[in-house]
Amino acid sequence: MSRTLTDKTILMSGGSRGIGLAIALRAAADGANVVLLAKTAEPHPKLQGTIYTAAEEIEEVGGKALPVVGDVRVDSDVRNAVTQAAERFGGIDIVINNASAIDLTGSEHIDMKRYDLMQDINTRGTFLLSRSAVPHLRNADNPHILTLSPPLNLAPHWPGAHLAYTLAKYGMSLCTLGLAHEFAKDGIAANSLWPRTLIDTAAVRNILGGADQARTPQIVADAAYAILTRDSRQCTGQLLIDDEVLAEEGTTDLRHYRAAEGEADLKLDIFLDA
Predict the structure, then answer these.
(1) 262: pLDDT confidence band, cut at 50, 70 and 90?
(2) What CATH number does the domain containing 201 carry?
(3) Would residue 274 count as lying in a domain?
(4) Does a structural domain hold residue 3?
(5) Contact (Cβ atoms closer than 8 angstroms) between residue 196 and residue 204
(6) 27: closest CA among 2, 49, 58, 67?
(7) What does pTM read for this prediction?
(8) Buried b vs exposed e over 103-134: b needs ≥16 C-beta within 10 Å?
(9) Is 268 a member of any domain?
(10) With 60 as the cut, is the pLDDT of residue 1 above it?
(11) Span 41-88, pLDDT tens digits
């Protein structure tokens, strides 16, 4: 791919590990600047990596990193991250809404604190971080907002399985559609990206106990890279799937993305029907 993210400044929520970090490292390999807004200043007993170890990895592969400890739910923390990004790197070219909370408990039993947490991080956090960066995105050459959220599959079995989580994730996707329309005149793209299959992250391993039916985070990182290097006025308002994005770029052999050797069938990710 001849397109590049060299010298582009990315503001990402989360990114200490998993898919977010993979996206950051793919961009950093071009020499991008990556600003991470995340709470993980201290190591977690079950989750590898902090905002500082992520920053070290970003710089090791050729990018510039700015770790900003903060919470995407807190207005002042988001304003601080936007301000620091603009002051350090002269602007913001890309926003990636990566931070997300998950709880698949059914409606009758979910604790409302968990419901509120998902709404605040997923939907509100996406809305807040995106809109806060708009004044800087307007001045960028090829501005993008990319949100890690699913297609709006309205088949009733998805909200029926875990309504609270579905509301929070679909809220992120609605942000994509609304932002794309509202800021089309400014040339600011807004898209969502979702994996076809389970992705081998700490969360998946903790919940499902293995990666035999998963792909690596690199497939999402490569798809994100493809989206973020497209013309923002031509690629916007879409709810995209990783392997479809790669197919459009000419990559159809996905065997190297498998997280484990063997012939186990890959498992479709949530919100995707066969």
Answers:
(1) confident
(2) 3.40.50.720
(3) no
(4) no
(5) no
(6) 58
(7) 0.96
(8) eeeeeeebeeeebebbbbbbbbbbbbbbbbbb
(9) no
(10) no
(11) 887 777 778 999 999 999 999 999 999 999 999 999 999 999 999 999
Cα–Cα distance measured from residue 188 to residue 254, given in angstroms and rounded to the nearest whole number: 30
Strand 144-147 versus strand 33-38 pairing type: unpaired
What amino acid positions are annotated as catalytic residues? 165
pLDDT reading at 208 higher than 70: no
**Considering only CA atoms, which of 97, 114, 96 is closest in space to residue 105?**
114
Q: What is the tally of structural domains in the chain?
A: 1
- Confidence at 210, pLDDT banded by 50, 70, 90: low
Strand 214-215 to strand 198-199: parallel, antiparallel, or no bridges (unpaired)?
parallel
Evaluate whether residue 270 is within a structural domain.
no
Q: How far is CA 153 from CA 158, 161, 166, 199, 205, in A?
A: 8, 13, 10, 20, 25
Domain that holds residue 94: 9-257
Burial of 208: CB neighbours in 10 Å, binned 0-12, 13-18, 19+: middle
121-177 pLDDT, tens digit each: 999 999 999 999 999 999 999 999 999 999 999 999 999 999 999 999 999 999 999
Give 39's pLDDT tier (boundaries 50, 70, 90).
very high
